[in-house]
Amino acid sequence: MTDHLAEIKALPVPELTDGYPAIADHGLIGDGQTAALVGLDGTVRWLCLPRFDGPALFAALLDAERGGAWTLRPAGLRAVRQEYLPDTAVLRTELHTATGRLEIRDALLITSGAGEPADAADRAGPAVDRPLGTELGAACGELGRLVTVIDGTVDLEIGLTGRGGLRTTPSAEEIGIEFLAGDGGRLRLTASRPVPGLDRLAGRIQLTAGDRLGLVLRWAQGPTRHRDADQLAAALDRTAAAWRTWSRQINYTGRHADLVRRSAITLKLCDDHDSGAVVAAPTSSLPEAIGGRRNWDYRFTWVRDAAYTVYALRRIGMAAEAESFLSWVLQACTRDGRPHVLYTLDGTRPAPERIDPDLSGYRGSRPVRWGNAAADQIQHDVYGEILDCAWQWARAGGAVDDRRWSRLTRLGRSALQHWRTPDHGIWEIRHEGRPFTYSVAMCQVAADRMARLATATGRRDEVEPWRRAAEKIRSALLAEAWDDDNKHFTEHLGQPGTVDASLLALPLRRVVDPADPRMVATVDAVQQRLGAGGDLLYRYLPEESPDGVGGGEGAFLLCSFWWVDNLAGSGQLDRAHELFEQLCGRVNHVGLLPEQIDPATGAFLGNFPQAFSHIGLISSAVNLARYGRMRT
Q1: In degrees rounded to 5, what are phi and psi of residue 37?
Q2: What pTM, to 2 d.p., does this model score?
Q3: Which residue range is the domain that position 25 belongs to?
Q4: Does the first or last residue of the chain, that is N or C, have fewer Cβ atoms within 10 Å of its Cβ?
């Protein structure tokens, strides 16, 4: 069995293209409030403050010259190596020069706090509004970077630039920094030893074997706590220990356990500990095609992601995270009459989408967007997503009182009212609405889950009406989405010919059995029409299904994991395992996955890392293990 993360060797310094590193050449660190991307060369190129959807302090991935970055650049860099400390989000980067070798340990620091036993209330059922910080530790509001020279002598340049500019006010013990593009946000920088020029955020120092330099960037209120390298090393050790304690809950021992565990940690890094929400990705506007316009802000929580995320997390033992996300979803989405497609981390609607006139985009891929106009779209699948979450909540012991039942009933009735109405669909087209098969299927899910909820909560007289409604929608879908000439389900009701990869999700939501011959034929049709080579699939073809954006995009990784699940569910286990092996080979050097892959080059595209891709990896691994046990 291949262990993709077992041995990571030093590599030549990656080349830049158009002045930019590859998206894949980064690791992710985070603290449950925000996250940063650290390059193979030790450069921090992404960090939003004070939380995931805040202003970007470092955004060099979106403009190498003006975006801002924190560089630790040794003279004469020749080779690089990067890895996570096992079962943690502490990143170790090793830089080799002609004269020496140094190590950088990077983390967004957290206080120790994991592993404490649940109280009696927690054991009785899902907690409501339980912050996930109690499961891992609290964020310190600090990015710690510990430089250690392993051997030889290293000349190290240190530089900080910020999007929109930084202004400094040095003092005896720390450097005050005003973040000019962040609404006047203030930060502090400390170093464990004097660095000439650092007060101007452009220092240089020579270090020899055994020397250590601790650097801490702090944005939280209160005094900076780290003054010397030993204290920072201890804080990094505590952060690593908290992650390792938290990681003990991950319950998976099947094939590629290393990647499943890394995916679980990555999802935790996309998790807002205060609210329980999970961002789709910690970045904005990384392009789906180089030079194209498909550049979106993903630093929000999509309702659609919730049910898939909760399902994946529960299957590997992350019950607290699953329950907190469920609580967040049900509160956010039943707050007013109409559920929305996506929300901010605190459950409100995001500000209107805007284009940044100052940033040139990754490798010139304009525009750079902040906010996401999909928040205002009509997408009828949200009813099924929310009610599936409610069903999972009830199955785990969560209470559904009369007030919550009334809100859920309104959502179910909305699904029954709108299931034939065109919408913008799962792919969020910016074009006129269409009767997407997936949206209809999720309205069927809404009615089905209401019937199940009525049974589970003792509302017996309401079971049969919901069950009949679910069967009515399902019958219509099977009749009107079936293309009898081409023998497969279609992307839209009553419109034969086209397919899209969301059809692969029908068995995952229990609308169609994966072994149904019609579904098996549809999977084959999706692979033939949308196959991008080998293990990759496009989610749809814009030339066949206009989306109002224009241009092409890469292959969508989540769809390939859905393909694995369909193959396994229809008994084609050998093909499923082969496909899963290929997909696991797509991870980068530290086990991270993007939203999309360029089929021609294998390069990462889209926002990174993508929570949905890691959810797909976890779910497929668990499903393959389950179907394998059933076969034996």
Answers
A1: -105, 125
A2: 0.94
A3: 11-247
A4: C
Residues 6+ apart with CB under 8 A from 55: 48, 49, 163, 179, 181, 182, 183, 185
Pairing of strands 139-162, 212-218: antiparallel
In this structure, is residue 436 part of a structural domain?
yes
Residue 517: CB atoms within 10 Å: 10
Distance CA 564, CA 290 (A): 28
**Residue 378 φ/ψ region, left for φ over 0, alpha for ψ in the -120 to 50 degree band, beta for the rest:** beta
Structure tokens at 77: 């860099």
Residue 107, both tokens: 């983390």
Give the three-class secondary structure for 432: coil
Cβ burial, residue 468 (10 Å; 0-12/13-18/19+)? exposed
Question: Is residue 117 located within the same domain as residue 203?
Answer: yes
Q: Which two tokens stand for residue 159?
A: 């530089």
Q: How many structural domains are present in the chain? A: 2
Please write the tens of the pLDDT for every residue from 363-406: 999 999 999 999 888 889 999 999 998 898 888 888 888 988 99
**Of the candidates 525, 376, 380, 378, which has an alpha carbon nearest to the alpha carbon of residue 445?**
380
Cβ neighbours around 309 below 10 Å, total: 30
Neighbours of 420 (CB within 10 A): 15
